[in-house]
Known about the structure:
The structure holds two protein chains of two kinds.
Chain A: H1 3-9, E1 18-21, H2 26-38, E2 41-44, H3 51-56, E3 59-64, E4 73-77, H4 86-91, E5 94-98, E6 101-105, H5 108-114, H6 122-137, H7 143-152, H8 156-166, H9 171-176, H10 180-185, H11 188-229
Parallel strand pairs in A: 1-4
Antiparallel strand pairs in A: 2-3, 3-4, 5-6
Chain B: H1 4-17, H2 20-36
Amino acid sequence: xxxxxxxxxxxxxxxxxxxxxxxxxxxxxxxxxxxxxxxxxxxxxxxxxxxxxxxxxxxxxxxxxxxxxxxxxxxxxxxxxxxxxxxxxxxxxxxxxxxxxxxxxxxxxxxxxxxxxxxxxxxxxxxxxxxxxxxxxxxxxxxxxxxxxxxxxxxxxxxxxxxxxxxxxxxxxxxxxxxxxxxxxxxxxxxxxxxxxxxxxxxxxxxxxxxxxxxxxxxxxxxxxxxxxx
Amino acid sequence: xxxxxxxxxxxxxxxxxxxxxxxxxxxxxxxxxxxxxxxxxxxxxxxxxxxxxxxxxxxxxxxxxxxxxxxxxxxx
Lengths: 230, 76
């Protein structure tokens, strides 16, 4: 679900870590444990590798020591802000077949939700991910693609083009994303401003979502330090 | 219709036009170059990430990537 998925869908990220979204049940965690052992990966930082932390929304971080993946970091998550349950993600996944390997990636709409974070680097990525999808399918789009673009495009020119080609914009979409009114009227400068405000709101929501989790991480860090001192 | 070139320039437009598998392959080539130049898989700390822990151990030496160091730089 991280940089590798972004490359597949069209953005470009030179990400050195690997981000995995997993189902945090005991059978699956046992499989993951075997996989990380194969990679000679150890948990770094907090929290520990326990289902309860994954279910709360924490990420568990590993660093690999296998000679072929030395230093590589793996981040594992099971629950993300604004993203559906793992069961739903799994039914919508993209499966890539390459060199007799199968790789399951989070679907583009789910990846877009997962990338709405407080970090600067995720927002240009988001914009590109949706642009690529729009350019690839705009000449013969399905209704669900048009809906996706109306709700997620972050490029003013393309939002205006979309509104021109597929207007009038349905009321339920306008209610869900009020800046679509500006796309319908073709007001680019106001639309740019509204997109920036939308981004800021999402970043703040992400910070609020993480506030209690960060507090918990702090406690775990203090506990770890105290344990190391004794 | 707005073309990808108008919006993002030639280089990005060429990347956009690749199929997902082609992008994956191109990315693999970049990785090979990166490793050939001595690049490491040890990621840089992401200070904006909610997971960021300044006390977290890293295999990275304090002065940069293993096997790579600055030999000359401008004064700026």
